[in-house]
Design a protein that fits this description.
The structure is a single chain. The protein is mostly beta strands. The chain has a domain of about 200 residues: Jelly Rolls, CATH 2.60.120.200. The chain is about 10% helix and about 40% strand. It has four helices and 22 strands. Strands 5, 6, 8, 9, 12, 17, 18, 19 and 22 form a nine-stranded antiparallel sheet that branches. The longest helix is centred in the last third of the chain and has 15 residues. The structure holds calcium ion. Calcium ion binds next to loops.
Length: about 300
């Protein structure tokens, strides 16, 4: 393990973080989080394997590490991506469907996977309602860093066992958590620019936020059907049908619970920095979210790991 000091945290300017020397921080569990990161000297936020993993992470697809080997991928532009590996412990790889295409340098220097209206990837594994939303079958949080094409009406992501039992994101920024009318909500159009989409479903309400700004919230207590399961689909719901999506995805993170405000701020702040997207996410003071989410493994209010172990 390399050492770290405050002097190494040399420059933070938008998405650009520059370090004087290389160091490696292996997985450290602090407050239930695990951070694992490999930083390269003087590279501009070359985050290769750091985020926020806790026991209720359902799946995590990161275009900067499509094959989940911890290193940055360098496929050629337009290369077909047929297996976008899950970076959570669950191995829920997107390894079925037509595939998407690799699009380097899409946002903040980071790559994306591009899905035309005829392209999709999905988990060969059937994910159950309990796996997707927890034993309550009613709570979840999803973060998506995406750029949706204008004028496509289809879905970006979906999990659907029946019309009345589904979780869909798509259309004109719609979240459809169980299709009985009450479950549908629209957060306004987002087409044509990169954003950080946050869908939050608690036991009583659901909301959509863009770049950390709450767009819409409504009551919703509906849950998914017990013992139901479906593939998790990214991109078009089905090739060639009306549920077509045109979208670039840089990252998707799914949790089977409603994250706290502090947790969502940490993740949103991390994503904003990684991709150079301005957000309203503000990590709580002394939460060490900045340091922790940048890979130092310092998810503590005491900053003990930094100050005592490695510096000064
Ligand atoms: Ca990789």
């Amino acid at each position: 393990m390399g050492s770290y000091s405050r002097q190494d945290f040399h420059q933070v300017t938008g998405s650009v973080i520059v370090f004087h020397r290389s160091f490696h921080v292996s997985a450290e569990k602090v407050l239930g989080f695990v951070a694992a990161a490999l930083f390269t000297s003087s590279s501009a936020l070359s985050l290769q394997a750091s985020v926020i993993v806790d026991s209720r992470l359902v799946a995590w697809w990161d275009a900067s590490d499509i094959n989940n080997d911890g290193g940055v991928n360098n496929p050629r532009r337009g290369a077909l991506v047929t297996n976008w590996r899950d970076k959570s412990v669950h191995g829920r790889d997107l390894n079925a469907g037509s595939g998407g295409t690799y699009s380097p340098g899409s946002i903040g220097g980071q790559p994306a996977v591009r899905f035309s209206t005829q392209q999709w990837l999905y988990t060969a594994e059937q994910i159950t309602a309990e796996q997707l939303t927890g034993t309550d079958r009613n709570e979840m949080t999803i973060f998506m860093v995406l750029n949706k094409y204008p004028d496509d009406l289809g879905y970006w992501t979906s999990w659907q066992t029946a019309v009345t039992n589904r979780v869909l994101f798509g259309g004109r920024n719609r979240w459809d958590f169980v299709n009985d009318g009450a479950g549908q909500m629209t957060g306004g159009r987002i087409s044509g620019f990169w954003t950080i989409f946050e869908g939050l479903k608690s036991s009583t309400t659901q909301s959509i936020s863009l770049r950390g700004g709450r767009r819409v919230q409504q009551p919703n207590t509906l849950g998914l059907a017990r013992r139901s399961s479906a593939n998790f689909i990214v991109g078009a719901v089905n090739t060639g049908n009306s549920m077509s999506a045109g979208v670039d995805f840089a990252e998707l993170i799914v949790y089977n619970r409603a994250l706290s405000t502090a947790e969502r701020n940490q993740i949103g702040f991390y994503l904003g920095n990684k991709y150079g997207i301005p957000t309203e996410y503000i990590p709580e003071p002394n939460s060490a979210a900045l340091l922790g989410l940048c890979g130092f493994g310092v998810f503590t209010g005491r900053r003990r790991q930094v100050d005592d172990a490695h510096s000064h």
